[in-house]
Amino acid sequence: MTPGEYKRFKGLQKENLRDYMDDIELILTLLGEATTTRFTRERDSKEFPKLKEDAKDGGDVAGSTRKNIEQKLGKRVVSSDNFLEKSEEQKRLAHKKKEK
Asked: How far apart, in whole angstroms, are the C-alpha atoms of residue 21 and residue 82?
């Protein structure tokens, strides 16, 4: 999912997408970015096609990690829920209600 698609998925317009991600969403985003940076440095990528390949590979690492987490949890980790819209207490209460 592209950042634009992700913003639409969460119902955002001009807001900062990261402000509305939960912890797992942020971690997966950072994993993709850090992996892409590492690939670029280790491969000494300089031109657009190589940088694009690095970005694709970094995204693949984050994507496969997301799928692994979802498989073990038995549910999706990417959510249209917005982190800033509810207090932590409200989130815990909603989670408890879902478990019942």
From this structure: 6
pLDDT in tens, 29-67: 999 999 999 999 999 999 999 999 999 999 999 999 999
Alpha-carbon distance of 9 to 76, in angstroms, equals 14
**Residues 10/20, Cβ–Cβ less than 8 Å:** yes
Provide the residue type at 58 as one letter.
G
What are the φ and ψ backbone dihedral angles of 2, each rounded to 5 degrees? -75, 165
Instruction: Please report the sign of the dihedral spanned by the C-alpha atoms of residue 70, residue 1, residue 9, residue 23.
Output: positive
Span 71-97, average pLDDT: 74
Please, which residues have CB within 8 angstroms of residue 39's CB and are 6 or more apart in sequence? 45, 54, 57, 58
